[in-house]
Amino acid sequence: MDHIHDLSFGGERPLFGAHDVSLENITVTDGESAIKCCHDIECKDSKFYGKYPWWHVDRSLITSCYFAPGSRSAIWYSDDMTMRDCVIDGPKFFREMRNLSLENVTINDADETFWHVSDVKIKNVTLHGGTYPFMHCDNIHVDGLTSDAKYIFQYCHDVEIHNAHITTKDSFWECDNVTVYDSDISGEYIGWHSKNLRFVRCHLSGEQILCYADHVTLEDCTIDAACDRMFEDCSNLDVSVRGAITNIKNPISGKIVADEIGSVTYDEFAKGHDTEIAVRK
Questions:
Q1: How is residue 115 annotated by DSSP?
Q2: Backbone angles phi, psi at 93, to 5 degrees
């Protein structure tokens, strides 16, 4: 493997077509598409300032690197990538990819990041700001995620999340087959229009959460007291809550059990009355 180190690159496509190369302490300055149509690349201790620096690069390892705000849309169409110990300040990273692994990565502008990515592994990652991260992704495994980006995890399927702290709105919108363990999920309209949602030992908060969904399971979860109108038009509920649920509105079918239930509302718009609602004895 060739070793390129302690150099700066600018202009158009300076490393186009490179392969079987180790990059160390390089700086990509101005210009576009510095590393494009490449394969088998390792890069560490480097800085990226120019646009679109990493497209169509298969089988890569990126460690201890920095991506500046100007490196927007930096990594697209690149399969089999591992990134560790990096800081990203640019938006619109990671698009149209497969087999992506991130560990100890901070993304300070998560706008439109992780779109159409399959087979994603996330460990100890922080997302800040922006909208719609993880849209149209599948086969996602998360262990350690902190995020305040809006509209996270929309139109996703086959998702498993552990140890997350997510503050957002419209999370898990129109998703299928999502399981979340030991996490704190906060924000209005969690899980709308989704199916096969499961939350285990989680704390949920927000307005009108878990509505218009099918096959929703809560195991040993807690619900914030300010949550109202939960489970509207939900079917096939299997809900076990520790503590209280303030308000339930128009659930269609299934079972809801809690230590305390403040109120249950069924109005003329209810689509079914086949939900067993019980206070735990």
A1: E
A2: -90, 160
The helix or strand, by DSSP H or E, that contains position 261, with its residue range, turns out to be strand 253-265
> Which CATH number is correct for 2-279, 3.10.410.10, 2.160.20.10, 3.40.50.970, 3.90.850.10?
2.160.20.10
Cα–Cα dist 142/97, whole Å: 17
Can you tell me whether residue 129 is helix, strand or coil? coil
Residue 35 reports pLDDT greater than 90: yes
Q: What secondary structure letter does DSSP report for 188?
A: T
> Domain residue spans in the chain?
2-279
Q: What does the chain come to in residues?
A: 281
pLDDT digit string, tens, across residues 97-142: 999 999 999 999 999 999 999 999 999 999 999 999 999 999 999 9
Q: Note the pTM of the prediction, 2 decimals.
A: 0.96
pLDDT higher than threshold 90 for residue 1: no
pLDDT digits (tens, 9 = 90+) for 225-251: 999 999 999 999 999 999 999 999 999
Helix (H) or strand (E) holding 277: strand 274-279
C-beta of residue 83 within 8 angstroms of C-beta of residue 103: yes
Tokens representing residue 264 in the block: 């249950």
How far the first Cα of the chain sits from its last, in Å, is 67
Instruction: Give me the residue label for tokens 């218009």.
Output: 212
Place of tokens 């399927």: 157
- Sort residue 172 into left (φ over 0), alpha (ψ -120 to 50) or beta: left
